[in-house]
Design brief:
This protein has 26 helices and ten strands. By secondary structure, the protein is an alpha/beta fold. Strand 6, helix 24 and strand 7 form a beta-alpha-beta unit. The N terminus is likely disordered.
Length: 732
């Protein structure tokens, strides 16, 4: 066992990147393809064609791949929006819906992955006994288990190298089929729609379309094989979408071509009664047998490598008992303890000798996981939070098809097991809720509760965390002059729309109340949740500071105070006092200076000034006083449909390359629009905004308002200055 006292991290997505990392082809495409092209392709595809006919079989293949393909697209969209950690689907779900939901789905998902290893070993043994009928079943099972366990214990690198050999065997088996087709095996007339005679073990008493669909569907459920290895990928954000979708596309083509070949190469009676018809009709039967053995062995390897990583990720969040032990890693980052526990689970399942009774339950847990991933995308899309800006966007109907299809198939395959699986997941969730798990970083639940209704306020507080991913603009706008408010309204809308909140606070009397009401009405017409109020105070700065302090402990607390840069130097002290109160209460500050001649220009170009971050030029999770400026820039660019320019400063020519790399890395990490320009200038006097309609600058603690006014004069355009509250993140 590995001592995990120094290896346990607070979350899988924050685990240090130890050990060898793998790329798209080796880490995602190959294991996913080998899992999909499994035993069902070799032993049951012919039976499906014999029952359903060519048209029916094609419909079954397309239907199954439509559901799992939609789920893969949903997974890809989520993966390109977050920093996925170890655990694959568990990491995605827990970051979005919380540790309780992630654990409730992840625990049975782990159990299914582990039990699936035993089932794949049974399938491998069946292939061995086809070749050697007298081979002792238990001995074959134990030897096969010892082999796959040792490979998994050594590490995924060895498993991936073995999978290349298996991939070659599967390709050889398909080549054998192609050679048979060329040599004239396709002599049968096509039966478009079958009579559904059923299975030989039931005496061919008849069946229907949906039971046949249920037999084939597990063939398409190997889409998580690569995602489960997310913790050992070099770039999971790129590798998982590319590798998974490519594997699905290739396997779909293989299944469709194989369906046509089977329909033309054997009669419906032969296809239904002979599970080994693919071996018999191929040009070289041993190649197909090798492919069958390789398919089952690769599936077993993929599951026994992936399952411990799911368990380790769950344990790293303290979700399961003995979490510190199970989260342990060796010096190469391998989850040794979780692998040993998984091996014990698989061995126990093998000794039971028959898992057919619970096989449907294993499929149910996979389907619940897939349905949950689709539901997460639906929630993210409906909440429309600033943090949801995936690099791969998908239409709403995709997760609807994925979620609805998964739920439908659950009850088509076995409604009893569907209810049992759902009940177990709900039970796990209820238990985990009682444990009051603390997530290392906020998730979507707070944003969801705020969007649904105010009654969820207590639950949001209980969830805790900084809720960086649920951040959206909640502006407090102090006003003492009607003219300044009128000038700021367009930018207020541009920063807060479409789902932000604006609180207009008037300081003083007269007709200011009416002006604020009219402004709030205009903002509401723009789709914003805007309210207004009047606050009395001896001084403007005192009233605003008191307001910030008063609302800091409430629900829907403002996270940004927005002010206009005063033209009168005498009012600088007021702004400094307001900024001090904002900093003390973790509220960001945005200053607006509208240029008297250019205004907001054409609203087509926005420049975001990054400044000089040398000499290290390292990009951390929390940007150095750039988070709020970046988020404001994203909001404005989106609402204006404008182009963003990132401007870095490299005062030393020797650091220009580092600065350019920093700007490029920030653009990718923050998931900025694809047309974002990247510019590095040699000194602060160079004009970074000559083509811009608006310039955005970070506002430092030590920057005085004379420097702010000078920046506006030098830029020659309207400017926005932002000071972080410390609770927002542009990289979340």
């Amino acid at each position: 066992m590995v001592d995990s006292s120094e290896r346990l991290t607070s979350s899988p997505q924050e685990a240090p990147p130890t050990g060898k990392r793998f790329g798209t082809f080796q880490g995602v495409f190959t294991p996913t393809l080998l899992t999909i092209l499994g035993v069902i392709m070799y032993l049951r595809q012919g039976w499906v064609v014999g029952n359903a006919g060519l048209a029916g079989a094609v419909l079954i293949v397309l239907g199954a791949f439509a559901i799992t393909g939609a789920t893969a697209l949903s997974l890809s969209s989520l993966v390109t929006n977050i920093r996925i950690g170890a655990g694959g689907a568990y990491s995605v779900i827990s970051q979005s819906l919380g540790l309780e939901v992630g654990g409730a789905v992840g625990i049975p998902l782990y159990a299914s992955q582990a039990l699936a290893v035993a089932m794949y070993i049974f399938g491998f043994r069946a292939g061995i006994q086809y070749v050697i009928p007298d081979a002792p079943a238990l001995l074959v099972d134990l030897v096969t288990f010892a082999f796959v366990f040792l490979v998994a214990y050594v590490g995924p690198g060895l498993a991936f190298r073995i999978q290349y050999v298996i991939l070659a065997a599967i390709i050889a088996s398909l080549v054998s089929v192609a050679v048979a087709a060329v040599d004239g095996s396709m002599t049968q007339s096509v039966t478009l729609w079958g009579d559904f005679p059923g299975a030989p073990e039931t005496g061919l008493r008849g069946t229907s379309f949906w039971p046949v669909f249920a037999v084939f569907f597990p063939a398409a459920t190997g889409i998580m094989a690569g995602a489960n290895l997310s913790g050992i990928l070099k770039d999971p954000r790129r590798s998982i979408p590319r590798g998974t979708l490519a594997a699905i596309a290739v396997s779909l083509v293989v299944y469709l071509l194989l369906t046509y070949w089977l329909a033309r190469s054997a009669s419906p009676g032969e296809l239904v009664s002979n599970y080994y018809v693919m071996i018999d009709r191929a040009a070289w039967g041993p190649a197909v047998i090798a492919g069958l053995l390789g398919a089952t062995l690769s599936s077993a390897l993929g599951s026994i490598v992936g399952a411990p990583r799911i368990l380790q990720a769950i344990a790293a969040n303290g979700v399961v008992p003995a979490s510190r032990l199970l989260a342990g890693q060796d010096r190469r980052g391998e989850p040794r303890n979780a692998t040993i526990v998984t091996g014990a689970v698989v061995l126990g399942a093998l000794l039971l000798r028959n898992l057919n009774a619970i096989a449907p339950l294993i499929t149910m847990f996979f389907l619940i996981t897939y349905a949950t991933i689709n539901v997460v995308v639906l929630i993210e899309q409906r909440l429309r939070l600033v943090s949801f800006r995936p690099l791969m966007r998908i239409p709403t109907f995709v997760p609807v098809v994925g979620a609805g299809g998964c739920i439908f198939v659950m009850f088509i395959i076995n409604p009893i097991f569907g209810l049992v699986a759902s009940g177990l997941v709900l039970t796990f969730y209820a238990v985990l809720v009682r444990r009051n798990l603390v997530a290392p970083r906020g998730d979507l639940r707070s944003g969801l509760f705020v969007s649904v209704a105010e009654w969820a306020a207590r639950r949001v507080v209980e969830l805790g965390g900084t809720n960086e991913r649920a951040w959206k603009p909640n502006l407090l706008v102090p006003v003492d002059e009607r003219s300044s408010l009128r000038a700021m309204l367009p930018l207020i809308t541009s920063i807060a729309a479409p789902n932000g909140i604006v609180k207009l606070v008037g300081v003083g009397g007269g007709d200011l109340s009416q002006v604020l009401d009219q402004a709030a009405t205009e903002l509401r017409r723009d789709g914003l949740f805007a309210t207004s109020t009047i606050v009395d105070g001896d001084t403007f700065e005192g009233a605003v500071a008191a307001t910030i302090q008063a609302v800091s402990g409430g629900f829907l607390t403002p996270n940004v105070v927005l002010l206009a840069v005063p033209e009168e130097v005498e009012r600088d002290a007021q702004l400094h006092e307001i900024m001090r109160a904002a900093r003390e209460n973790q509220v960001g500050v945005v200053l607006i200076s509208r240029h008297p001649q250019t205004g907001l220009g054409r609203r087509r170009e926005v420049a975001l000034w990054l400044g000089d971050h040398g000499p290290s030029w390292r990009l951390e999770m929390n940007l150095p006083n750039l988070d709020l400026a970046t988020l404001c820039g994203l909001q404005i660019v989106k609402n204006w449909q404008a182009r963003l320019t990132l401007v870095g400063l490299a005062a030393d020519e020797a650091h220009k390359t580092d600065a350019e790399h920093y700007v490029d890395t920030l653009a990718e990490a923050a998931r900025l629009p694809s047309d974002t320009r990247r510019v590095v200038v040699p000194d602060a006097s160079a004009s970074p905004v000559e083509e811009a309609d608006l310039a955005i600058f970070p506002l430092g603690d030590d920057m005085n308002l004379d420097e702010v006014r000078a920046r506006v004069r030098d830029a020659g355009v309207s400017c926005v200055f932002a000071h972080d509250a410390g609770v927002e993140s542009a990289l979340a």
